């Protein structure tokens, strides 16, 4: 279904419940990015991004996690991005949304620490999917050089989720780049991100 609509999370949850199926693992992978200058991107598309990447994700987590707690077992995998670790010009709304996902997931996982339910956040770098095409961007030099294949990223995310890890960044270079942003000012981090996204 279209997860960018306000009623989608409840409709999806109700459909699953009515089928009689039990959900032990919830993977919030639905989402998309928008590439370009903030002033040039239509508001309606940004609203759909915020609805899908943040509101739907939070609502689905709330709906399904209550059942997991009642059954005393469950795993949730939230899909963020290394863009969550820095301001990203030309992906401003997207990276801010993924920062929300990262901090939300970490916080929820801590709240769940005394239960057998865990929330893991995976923050991939550039991955071979339809992301860039949907976002409206031709791959930059950085993106072409660092792109990981989706099966490898998926396996890392699932393995860490089953282990109950709070978060993971797939790929050594991605980990170094994401964590190094904590050592430099936001303005410099934004400048580097802009160059990575625009130099072809």
Strand content range: 5-15%
Helix-strand category: alpha/beta
CATH architecture: 3-Layer(aba) Sandwich
Q: Specify the overall morphology.
A: globular
CATH superfamily: NAD(P)-binding Rossmann-like Domain
Order of helices and strands: HEHEHEHHHEHH
CATH top-level class: Alpha Beta
Poorly predicted regions: none
- The end-to-end span amounts to 35 Å
With strands numbered from the N-terminus, the spatial order across the biggest sheet is 1-2-3-4
Number of strands: 4
Integer average pLDDT: 94
| Total discrete domains | 1
In helices, the fraction of residues equals 40-55%
Radius of gyration: 17 Å
What is the number of helices? 8
CATH topology: Rossmann fold
Largest sheet: 4 strands, parallel
Structure explained in plain terms:
The chain has helices at 8-19, 43-71, 92-111, 131-135, 141-146, 150-163, 172-180, 186-198; strands spanning 25-28, 74-79, 117-122, 167-168. With 200 residues, it is an alpha/beta fold. It has one domain (22-198): NAD(P)-binding Rossmann-like Domain (Rossmann fold), CATH 3.40.50.720. It has a 4-stranded parallel beta sheet with strand order 1-2-3-4, with helices on both faces.
Can I get a quick summary?
Helices cover 54% and strands 9% of the residues. It has helices at 8-19, 43-71, 92-111, 131-135, 141-146, 150-163, 172-180, 186-198; strands spanning 25-28, 74-79, 117-122, 167-168.
Task: Pick out its properties.
200 residues, alpha/beta, Rossmann fold, 8 helices, globular
Layout of SSEs?
Layout: H1 8-19, E1 25-28, H2 43-71, E2 74-79, H3 92-111, E3 117-122, H4 131-135, H5 141-146, H6 150-163, E4 167-168, H7 172-180, H8 186-198
Parallel strand pairs: 1-2, 2-3, 3-4
Helix pairs in contact: 1-2, 2-3
């Amino acid at each position: 279904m279209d997860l960018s609509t306000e009623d989608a999370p409840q409709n999806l949850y109700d459909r699953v419940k009515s089928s009689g199926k039990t959900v032990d693992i919830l993977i919030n992978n639905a989402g998309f990015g928008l590439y370009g200058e903030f002033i040039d991107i239509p508001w309606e598309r940004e609203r759909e991004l915020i609805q899908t990447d943040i509101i739907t994700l939070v609502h689905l987590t709330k709906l399904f996690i209550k059942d997991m707690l009642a059954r005393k077992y469950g795993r949730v995998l939230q899909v963020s991005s290394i863009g969550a670790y820095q301001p990203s010009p030309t992906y401003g709304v997207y990276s801010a949304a993924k920062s929300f996902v990262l901090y939300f997931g970490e916080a929820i996982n801590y709240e769940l620490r005394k239960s057998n339910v865990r929330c893991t956040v995976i923050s991939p770098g550039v991955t071979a999917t339809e992301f860039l095409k949907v976002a409206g961007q031709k791959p930059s030099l950085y993106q072409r050089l660092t792109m990981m294949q989706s099966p490898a990223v998926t396996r890392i995310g699932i393995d860490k989720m089953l282990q109950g890890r709070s978060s993971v960044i797939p790929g050594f270079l991605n980990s170094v780049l994401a964590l190094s942003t904590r050592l430099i000012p936001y303005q410099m981090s934004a400048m580097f991100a802009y160059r990575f996204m625009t130099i072809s």
